[in-house]
Amino acid sequence: MVKRGKLTAFAAVLAVASTMLAACGGDAGDSPNELVLWHYESPDSAMGKAWAAAIEEFERTHQGVKVRFEEKGFEQIQKSAQMVLNSDEAPDLMEYNKGNATAGLLSKQGLLTDLSEQVASRGWDKVLSPGVQTTCKYDERGVMGGGKWFGVPNYAEYTMLYYNKNLFAKHGVKIPATFDELVAAMDAFVRAGVTPLSMGGKEYPAQHLLYQLALTRADSAWVDAFQRYQGKADFHDHAWTYAATTFAEWVNKGYIGKASTGVDAEGMGTAFMAGDFPIMMSGSWWFGRLQREITAFEWDSSLWPQSGKTLGSSGNLWVVPQGADNKNLAYDFIEITMRQQNQNLLGNSGGVPVAGDVAAITDPKSKSLIQNYHTLVGRDGLAYYPDWPAPGYYDVLASATQKLINGSASPHQVLDELARPYQEHVATLGS
C-alpha cells in the first residue's frame, strides 16, 4: 500500500471535511422540527431498506418533524468525524464504526453522548447480547467493554465462506465441512488451473483472512488480550505465527493470487459474483447483494469450519454527537430501528437483525445466515476485527498482508511489523 506523507494525508482530511461541511448548507441541527441523519449504507442494502422504512415510520409518528437524511461515504465519515463532531455542523444522529480506534476514540474525546440512561429506560440492553454490548460500551480510555454506552447497533455482522456451487460441481469438488476438506478443495481447484480464493489484498479482506487463521488457534483470553488489553498480546505466539506462515503458504500454493495486492474489496466481491472464483471469505455485509445480483450460478455460505472464533460483532453503531441539537428525536429514531417490524424487514432483506424473530424470516438462505449468527453468539464466538485495537492499525495490517502476498517480507518480519504500532499504542493507555 502506498503511504502518503503526513502533510498530504492531513490535507486530504481537510478537503474531505470541508466538502462535508459545505454539503450541509448551514448548521446541521438548526431546527427543532428536523432530524439530521447521516449514514453510509446503500439504498438497496438490508440496512438501507430498513432505515428508509424507519424514516417513514418516524415522520408518520412525529407530526411536523422531517428527517433530513444525508448519505455520506464510509471513508468520508471515517476520516473527518473528529473534525465535524467538534464543530457546529454535527448531525443529530449518525452511523459510525465500532471499536477502540473509532467510536472508542470519539467517546474518549468527549464527542459522543453517553446513552446509558436511554438504553436502560428503553430496554435496549435487554435485546442486545453480551458480546454485542461490548462494542457499544467504552471506558474513560476509549476501550470497549467499559461501563458507559456510547452507541447502539440495530444489526450484527460476521464473516463466513461463500461458495460458488456451480464451480464446485463442474470440477467435482465437495463443498467443505471441515478445515481439512477446505484445504483439499483448494488443492483440487489449483490442480484444475483455478485460483480458489477471491481476494482483495488492497483493503480489509486480506487482513480478515490473516486474523481468521489466527482465530483458529485462539480462545477468548487471546481475543481479550489483543482487543481489550486484558493480558499481553504476543505477536509471535502460536496463533499469530500459524496465521502468518499459513497465509504465506496459501499464496505459494496458489490458493491466493499474487495479483490480488492491487484488488480492493469491491473488486474481490464483484469477481466472485461474476463467477471467476469458487470461494470468497468475507462478511455478512455482502449477503444481501449476492442475493440480488447473482443470477448465473447457485451459491451458498457457511461458517469458517472448525473454528470457535470468527470475525464479527455488532454492526456499526448509531451514535448521537455530543453537540447534536435534537437528541430526543435521535433516541426516538433509534427506537424505531430496534422494533421487531423493522428488524424483520432487515432480516428478510439479507441483514442480521439483533432483535428480530427468526420465524418471521421467509428466505431459506437468510434464515440460515441469522441462525449461524445465533450459533456464534451462543458460543461467544464473535472475535471483533483486527484493525480495532489501535488508531491507524487498518493501514498497518493492509501493508503487512500485501507483503505476505507479494513475498517482500517473511512471516516473522510481518509479525514484527504488526507488533510495533500495537505495542506503542498500548503503552499510551496506562493502567
UniProtKB/TrEMBL annotation:
Signal peptide: 1-22
Gene3D superfamilies: Periplasmic binding protein-like II (3.40.190.10)
Signal is among the record's keywords: yes
Keyword Signal among UniProt keywords: yes
Keyword terms: Signal
PROSITE patterns for this protein: PROKAR_LIPOPROTEIN
Top-level taxon of origin: Bacteria
The protein, known as: Extracellular solute-binding protein
Organism: Amycolatopsis suaedae
Lineage: Bacteria, Bacillati, Actinomycetota, Actinomycetes, Pseudonocardiales
